[in-house]
């Protein structure tokens, strides 16, 4: 990974007061962007040992919650769950699973709602 977002995240791994203090905010920012959520996920999985030691498992839950807005398929959930199952304790896995399932349901409901709105607009707006 040699893009600006990755370099931004790598900077957060440096052991400086600035990077340590702001690393979670940097990660949340990158993960919240359409192009950044995959980059951030790869970064988290590649650096999980270090990140979990420094920030604990709460960081993963923050990332999962933010990434949740991008989850719409079972394959996406499975990818995240496999990582969680391999890295978290039982209670953390349960929390992560609930969070991911809730995100998927919420995203599917939003997709259905937006489809209904688009259909209504096509039918009711003069072309």
Report the sheet-strand fraction: under 5%
Which outline best applies? globular
**Helical run tally:** 7
Task: Please identify the top-level CATH class.
Answer: Mainly Alpha
- CATH topology annotation: Zincin-like fold
In total, the number of strands is: 0
Number of structural units classed as domains:
1
Organism: Callipepla squamata (Scaled quail)
Protein name: ERAP1-like C-terminal domain-containing protein
What does this structure look like?
This protein is mainly alpha-helical and 127 residues long. The chain has one domain (4-124): Alpha Horseshoe (Zincin-like fold). The protein has helices at residues 4-12, 17-31, 36-46, 48-55, 58-67, 74-87, 90-124. Helix 1 (4-12) packs antiparallel against helix 2 (17-31) and helix 6 (74-87) packs antiparallel against helix 7 (90-124). The protein starts with a helix and ends with a helix. The relative contact order is 0.10.
């Amino acid at each position: 990974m040699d893009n600006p977002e990755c370099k931004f995240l790598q900077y957060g791994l440096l052991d400086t007061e600035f990077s340590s203090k702001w690393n979670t905010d940097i990660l949340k920012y990158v993960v919240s962007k359409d192009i950044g959520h995959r980059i951030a996920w790869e970064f988290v999985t590649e650096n999980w040992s270090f990140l979990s030691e420094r920030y604990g498992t709460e960081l993963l839950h923050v990332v999962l919650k933010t990434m949740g807005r991008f989850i719409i398929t079972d394959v996406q959930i499975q990818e995240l769950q496999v990582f969680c199952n391999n890295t978290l304790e039982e209670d953390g896995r349960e929390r992560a699973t609930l969070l991911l399932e809730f995100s998927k349901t919420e995203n599917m409901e939003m997709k259905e709602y937006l489809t209904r709105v688009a259909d209504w607009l096509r039918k009711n707006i003069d072309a």
